[in-house]
Structures are given as structure tokens and as C-alpha cells.
Amino acid sequence: DGGITQSPKYLFRKEGQNVTLSCEQNLNHDAMYWYRQDPGQGLRLIYYSQIVNDFQKGDIAEGYSVSREKKESFPLTVTSAQKNPTAFYLCASTNTGELFFGEGSRLTVL
Amino acid sequence: SQQGEEDPQALSIQEGENATMNCSYKTSINNLQWYRQNSGRGLVHLILIRSNEREKHSGRLRVTLDTSKKSSSLLITASRAADTASYFCATDANAGKSTFGDGTTLTVKP
Asked: Closest-CA residue in chain B for A97?
């Protein structure tokens, strides 16, 4: 079945460590997005990519990095520069404007 | 910055009743979408309405869009306990970048 897969579902990190969240889609979508969601709040855009080998900063890109080497993959690295990384991270993709979301990755910094 | 603002923040109704939630936004848009999120899960697309449309239906869902007032509403008719979730509006004003509000949490009591 076509879909978008995020891993890991839960991740714990010590302060000062970088972590990478995986996002893979087999929907043949050109555009991919990373959002952050804090408790009781909406989604805020971290980074997005509309084509392979190109990506743009969203509203809260500081402390994060991405790559888009393949159409299917858009990994997100949460760096030690991100001061408050504990959150729920959601990846999405689209070709038509309708976003298809993964099930999310919950990152907790200990 | 959040483009969409949902109202109310929380809504509690009995099964069988209708649920109405509203979304207001600030700038001109290409389209507006509504999504549903069950607790701890990814978002699921419900309906997209374009800026030149005024009303759209999908099953028990009815969405209206008033571009002069920069607002939209989502009506869920004959609600069920399974409709319990958070509902978000997302506006697309700029090259596929969707901006989400903070959502309305709907509780449908059996």
C-alpha cells in the first residue's frame, strides 16, 4: 500500500546529542514537509522541499537540518542547537495540495 | 506565524448532534483544507475548498468558505463517538506551504 512512513515512533535523546528522524514515502510525491507539534497546539512548519536536491526553511528552522537526496526520502536532523526539541514531529507529502501525513515521531529530551 | 485560528478551542456534544467549528485567517488564500487528528496520530485530510468555491460536501461533512470575511466553517452532522478528535484548518497562500491553526478539540459523548 502507498503511504508515508516515519521512524522511530518514539525517541529519547540526551541533551547535546543530534538525532535524525526518518521520513519515507512511496506515493511518488514531489513535495515533502516537516512539521512540529507541541501539546495542545497546531503544526508549525520546520522545512519543506518541493523537488529533489532543493529545500527551504519554514517558520521555525533554527536548530534543525534536512536533506533531499532522493524523491522518496526527507530526513530531519534535530541538532543540539535546538533549545527545546521535545515535541511531536510530523512528516507530510503532496502533489496536489492535499497533505498525506505519517504517524509522527515523538522526541523526548532527557 | 499562525494563519488560521479555529474557534471554539474545545467543543463537547452528545452523539447525534451536529458540530460546527470555525476558522478565520488573515491573508488571501489559494485554498483552505480541514484535517482531523486522533490523539497521538498523524493528521488525515478531510476536505479541500478552493478560493472560488463557497460550499463543499463530503458525506456528513459540510464546509463553507467566505473569502470576504476570511473565514470557513466545518459542520459535522449526526455526530458519532468515533468523530472525537482534533480538527485543524490549514490555509495555502504561498506555493504549497500550508499554515495550520491550533485546532478545535471535539468530544462526542455516547
From this structure: B96
pLDDT, tens only, B37-79 = 999 999 999 999 999 999 999 999 999 999 999 999 999 999 9
Average pLDDT over residues B21-36: 93
Q: Do A94 and B33 touch (CB under 8 A)?
A: no
How many angstroms separate the most distant Cα atoms in chain B?
42
CA-nearest of B96, B30, B15, B106 to B65 is B30
Nearest to B44 by CA among B7, B106, B86: B86
Q: Provide mean pLDDT across the span A21-39.
A: 96
CB contacts < 8 Å between A and B, how many? 60
Mean pLDDT of the A17-21 span: 95
Strands (E), A8-86: 10-13, 19-25, 31-37, 43-51, 54-57, 64-66, 76-78
Taking all residues of chain A, what is their mean pLDDT, rounded to a whole number?
Answer: 94
C-alpha span between A99 and A32 (Å, rounded): 9
Instruction: Give the nearest partner residue to B88 out of A42, A48, A100, using CB atoms.
Output: A42
When scoring A43, A49, A60, A93 by the number of chain B Cβ atoms within 10 A, the one with the most, hence best to mutate, is A43
Through-space distance between the first and last CA atoms of chain A, rounded to whole angstroms: 36
Query: What phi and psi, each to the nearest 5 degrees, are found at residue B2?
Result: -80, 125
